[in-house]
């Protein structure tokens, strides 16, 4: 986001100071693209954040399940060895 804002600032400066009409037009088109990408980053940030939360929660659940399975296997091995 910071990089896009820096690019936007520089492109707008070029658009204001350029003497050639083609350069101004190209700079404005590039600025338009920068605005588009900044908007996409802003609107999709919530979706990405929710997805990361889901992945982290799923990872914790999997790790808890693995720990429970390992504890159960250890308890069973101890009990079986104690009997014999």
Description:
The chain is mainly alpha-helical and 84 residues long. It has one domain (2-83). Helix content is 94%, strand content 0%. The chain contains 2 helices and no strands. The protein has helices spanning 2-17, 21-83. Helix 1 runs antiparallel to helix 2. The longest helix has 63 residues, at 21-83. The mean pLDDT is 85.
Could you write a compact summary of the structure shown?
The chain has two helices and no strands. The protein has 84 residues and is mainly α.
User: What structural category arises from helix and sheet content?
Assistant: mainly alpha
Helical stretch tally: 2
Rg result: 28 Å
Specify the biggest β-sheet. Answer: none
Uncertain runs are none
Distance between the termini: 65 Å
Order of helical and strand elements: HH
Which outline best applies?
rod-shaped
How much strand content do the residues show?
under 5%
Work out the number of β strands. Answer: 0
Question: Helicity, in percent?
Answer: over 70%
Give the domain tally.
Answer: 1
Rounded mean pLDDT is: 85
């Amino acid at each position: 986001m910071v990089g896009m804002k820096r690019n936007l600032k520089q492109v707008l400066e070029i658009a204001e100071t350029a003497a050639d009409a083609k350069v101004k037009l190209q700079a404005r088109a590039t600025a338009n693209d920068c605005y588009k990408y900044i908007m996409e980053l802003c609107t999709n940030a919530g979706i990405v954040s929710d997805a990361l939360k889901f992945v982290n929660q799923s990872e914790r659940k999997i790790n808890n399940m693995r720990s429970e399975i390992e504890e159960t296997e250890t308890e069973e091995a101890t009990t079986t060895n104690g009997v014999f």
